[in-house]
Amino acid sequence: MIPYGRQDISEEDIAAVVAVLRSDFLTQGPAVPQFEAAIATHCGADHAVAVNSATSALHIACLALGLGKGDRLWTVPNTFVASANVGLYCGATVDFVDITPDTYLMCPEALAEKLAAAEISGTLPKVIIPVHFAGQSCDMAAIGALAKRYGVHVIEDASHAIGATYQGAPVGNCAHSDICVFSFHPVKIITTAEGGLATTQDAALAQRMDLFRSHGVTRAPDLMVDAEDQGGWYYEQVALGYNYRMTEMQAALGVSQTRRLDAFVARRNALAARYDALLCDLPITLPAQSRESYSAYHLYPIQVEDRVEVFAHLRNNGIGVNVHYIPVHTQPYYRDLGFKRGDFPNAEHYYHHAISIPLYAGLTEADQDSVKSVLKAALDG
Ligand SMILES: *Cc1c(COP(=O)(O)O)cnc(C)c1O
């Protein structure tokens, strides 16, 4: 079976993890700050906070921005459930903005309309989370300008998009957002097994995220309430935080993987360009790319007429396809919150036709040719 995505682990990656196992620190050592520095440098961000998943990174990002009870968080339906769930963790109300039919990204026009209506009814969100679906950046200039106008915070869910650029600058530089979040799950661009990270240009936000990832406990004099240091053991809990820390083994793997980040993204782009050429004569819709974006190509999502049949044929013939995403608002848990099918028609229409075909750095041209021939047979069938 050719999977839809998988990690690429080198001997150097393995040696980096083994070296940590032989060292003094399995957690809270030097590797996490090293990994944070590597990603911050790559993204052109002043600060990076590494945690045990992107879900945790989104959660502490929301907490750092003060999201709480009575507040509202908006994201897109075409995402993994975590992008929305983090709002509920904070006690906020969650709502959605529909996607564009061609890029499957948050639609700036739909956002503008919804913000204008929310301003009138006094229901503006505190936080919006655009998602860089498939590795392509959203129209962040438009989204950032709207956020500024209405006084809304922006967290980029760039789980798919490390190594991507927007308007020539790296995703993660937070040029149009407060915080940007990456995932290092094995199917993503680089991996730490489980893992995530938040970048920001704001020192205070970084300090608050650092607090929330480790129990709300601090040794920083400027964060302490009672302040006077009573000795070397002394710390204070000044917020209700979590244990969201990344281990040293994960961070060492991350440092090692980051050395190949640009090569992984270049390889994914070359494979995507080859799919573009290979599949353009089939009766399917290929993923549209904006001129402003260099995608990290986490996914290569196609749309087909008879999705159920084509998906089954591919799966039954050795092609490990998947579907991204079941619109979050149609999940039973979100229907219980009042959402219903039909609420966000573009995301639902896209979902009913979507198939993510295999794309990862280790995919071969022969694998791509197999995908094409099985896909062609499925469409002819
Ligand atoms: C993978 C993913 C997440 C969650 O990432 P984890 O690291 O598994 O917590 C969140 N949002 C999107 C869009 C994702 O693809």
TrEMBL record:
Keyword check for Glycoprotein: no
N6-(pyridoxal phosphate)lysine modifications at: K188
Name of this protein: UDP-4-amino-4, 6-dideoxy-N-acetyl-beta-L-altrosamine transaminase
GO biological process, alphabetically ordered: polysaccharide biosynthetic process
Active-site residues (renumbered): K188
GO molecular function, one term: pyridoxal phosphate binding
Keywords: Pyridoxal phosphate
